[in-house]
Write a structure and sequence with these properties.
Layout: H1 14-26, H2 28-37, H3 46-60, H4 67-77, H5 80-83, H6 85-95, H7 102-130, H8 137-153, H9 163-180, H10 192-198, E1 206-211, H11 217-230, E2 242-246, H12 251-263, H13 278-292, E3 296-299, H14 306-320, E4 324-328, H15 342-360, E5 364-369, H16 390-396, E6 399-404, H17 406-413, E7 426-435, E8 441-448, E9 453-457, E10 463-464
Parallel strand pairs: 1-5, 1-6, 2-3, 2-4, 4-5
Antiparallel strand pairs: 6-7, 7-8, 8-9, 9-10
Length: 468
């Protein structure tokens, strides 16, 4: 039995690099495109890096590019002899088959550079695996994922950004505001008064929604998820991708809730001896069809660490994009390191969630249970100090929203079921107790316990859905 070994593919293409540089010499337009497409580090041969750097300077100075101007630039830099002199520049200019294919040549150069970075990353991962100072297996998996993730982002070594470039980027937003007449806003929840107070959830925001059990906090964030996925969360109306980590409820339980919210058919109807009417059946079918079209992804694993969560989200973002992350709920998460001190463990989880929001560039909304201290007060409206293990959670959060429904406590005092009829709409208070980048305050929403969904108030009385 004979075996054949595949020869290793070279991790560079001298021909492609020469064709890129030749295209830039022959076409100023090609040069202007390629200096924004490639970086000098993506060239394998040092001489090619020097030539690319000189051409990039010519483009920056708004000069025409040809053999004469390029030679002059290299002479001024003292690099003409290093690249092989004028003879090598002529060879490059004559080598390129056609400047029209410049972007194709650049693609080859970029791909080979990515493979070189991947090879370097593989060596780093091997080092991480065998380094006892890198922590446990979970820590090493996270470090390895971060190394690979950086290859895709093409940001090797680019850890600092100048204030000059950031201020320029900021003023692009200012110009957009002036041109469109629309203020800077984040990802909308679909509830008008809440969005007006918060101006939306911004990329990198870590948002806490706190409430006592059975107050309706899961229903509130499911409304957020559905509204973002429908396209109500973005000014351009495009559907947003939402990831939900449900540590308490199964995925099918969440789907039942969302179908009920969308269709307006209580899940109690499925358990009724009367059965479903044809109208109920059709509305449920329409609700399922609507939900089927929404880019919402659910992970219902009951035991997950921030490191595992971050890895799953990286893959989801790479495959489908990512606009919003929801965690239900924070205190059910497990820290990367087991410790008897639960406060320290929650502190690590909260820091990891904030870091995750920043890395992924999207808001992370986490639910949080409130302590029983609420039940011992005459006024049961929640406060920041009611968040269990509140110190670290409050410190890391950019925005804290606390949920309160007076009707819930009245029903408990009167020893009666909270849901009396399907038409009942109760008043719910959303208390913005902390807002790092804006005002605090309170907004009123309508809550329908029968369908576990929220509604916008109407100024003339009553409530309506987010879509109306």
């Amino acid at each position: 039995m004979s075996t054949t070994s595949n020869p290793r593919m070279p991790l560079y293409s001298i021909e492609a690099e020469m064709s890129v540089l030749g295209s830039m010499i022959l076409s100023t337009r090609a040069a202007e495109q390629l200096v924004t497409t490639l970086t000098e580090d993506e060239f394998y041969r040092p001489a090619h890096r020097l030539i690319f750097r000189a051409i990039r300077q010519l483009v920056s100075n708004h000069k025409e590019i040809d053999l004469v101007t390029l030679r002059a630039e290299l002479v001024e830099r003292g690099n003409l002899a290093d690249v092989g002199g004028i003879d090598f520049l002529i060879e490059i200019a004559e080598y390129v088959p056609s400047a029209a294919n410049a972007m194709d040549y650049a693609g080859i150069v970029r791909d080979r550079a990515t493979l070189r970075r991947l090879e370097e990353s593989a060596a780093k991962i091997i080092e991480i695996v065998h380094n006892p100072d890198e922590g446990n297996a979970s820590d090493k998996v996270d470090s390895a994922e971060r190394v690979i993730f950086e290859v895709g982002k093409r940001q090797l070594g680019n850890y600092f950004t100048s204030v000059a470039s950031l201020s320029k980027e900021f003023f692009v937003d200012v110009d957009t505001i002036v041109e469109t007449g629309k203020p800077m806003q984040g990802l909308f929840s679909g509830f008008y008064d809440l969005d007006r107070l918060t101006t939306g959830f911004y990329p990198g925001d870590f948002v806490i929604v706190g409430a006592r059990p059975a107050m309706g906090k899961t229903s509130l964030v499911l409304d957020f998820a559905a509204n973002v996925a429908r396209g109500l969360g973005r000014q351009d109306g495009k559907k947003g991708t939402v990831a939900i980590f449900s540590l308490e409820m199964s995925g099918i339980q969440l789907v039942r809730r969302m179908v009920s919210m969308i269709s307006g058919i209580s899940m109690g109807a499925l358990k009724s001896e009367k059965g479903l009417s044809l109208d109920d059946y059709q509305r449920l079918a329409d609700g399922c069809e609507t939900l089927h079209e929404l880019p919402i992804f659910i992970d219902d694993g009951s035991d997950i660490t921030p490191l595992e969560m971050r890895g799953k989200l990286r893959r989801l973002k790479a495959e489908h994009g990512l606009d919003l992350v929801i965690i239900d709920y924070l205190q059910l998460m497990r820290g990367s390191r087991r410790t008897e001190n639960r406060v320290q463990e929650i502190s690590e989880i909260a820091r990891s969630c904030k870091s995750m929001a920043k890395e992924l560039g999207c808001p992370v909304v986490a639910l949080s249970q409130l302590s029983r201290a609420v039940e011992n007060r005459d006024d049961k409206r929640p406060q920041l100090s009611d968040i269990r293990e509140s110190g670290s959670i409050e410190a890391e959060a950019d925005l804290v929203a606390l949920l309160y429904r007076d009707s819930y406590y009245k029903a408990k005092e009167e020893h009666r079921p909270e849901v009396e009829n399907y038409e009942e709409v109760q008043e719910a208070e959303i208390i913005i107790a902390k807002h790092r980048n804006g005002p605090t305050g309170k907004v009123i929403l309508g809550f329908q316990p029968a369908f576990a969904r929220y509604r916008n108030p109407v100024r003339t009385g009553g409530y309506r859905s987010s879509e109306d």
